[in-house]
Description:
The protein is of the alpha+beta class and 153 residues long. The chain is built from seven helices and three strands, in the order H-H-H-H-H-H-E-E-E-H. It has two domains: 1-57, Monooxygenase (Up-down Bundle), CATH 1.20.1280; 79-153, no CATH class. The chain has helices at residues 6-13, 18-23, 29-35, 38-49, 51-56, 65-78, 116-152, and strands at 82-87, 90-95, 98-105. A three-stranded antiparallel β-sheet has the order 1-2-3. It is flat. Keywords: Nucleus, Ubl conjugation pathway. Residues 1-44 form the F-box domain.
Amino acid sequence: MDWLPGELCLKIFQLLDHQSLASAPQVCRKWRALTSDDELWRKLFSDRWGTDAAAFYAPEGSKSWKDVFVVQDRCDRYGLGVRIIREGKDYYLIYQGEIQRYLGSRQDTDGDGGKDAPRQDADDDEQRQIANRILFFLGDLEAACADAKRVKA
C-alpha cells in the first residue's frame, strides 16, 4: 500500500473495525500517520454510538477522537464505576473509562530450561507489588471518602 495515495488508504481504513484500526499503526510509519487521522476515528465513533453521542462526547482540548473512542469503548466494556482491569498483561485502575493509575504488569512465565524457581520468585514478587498498589489505592480511596463525608455533614 506504499504506492497508494493517502486518500485512498484512508478510504480503505474506514472499512476496518476499531480493533483492526488500532493494530494498523504497527505496520509502518505511513500507516501510523494515516490511522491517527481524527476524521477517521470520528466517523468510527459516529458509526458505533451515533451522531448525537458524537456531538455530546466531542473531544476537548488536546484529546483526539481516538482518545474519546477508547474511553467510550472502555466504558461499554467495564462500566462507569471504579474498576481494576487487565488489558493484555497490564493492570490499571479506571474510573468512567479513563485510566487513573497504572498498577503493574504480569510478565511471561516462559520456561528457562530448568530455571523455573528464580522466575517463579520474580513472578510472585511482581504479583505482590501489584497487590500492594491495589491495597494502597483502596486505602487512599477510603480516606478520601471519609473526608468527603465529614465535609458533607
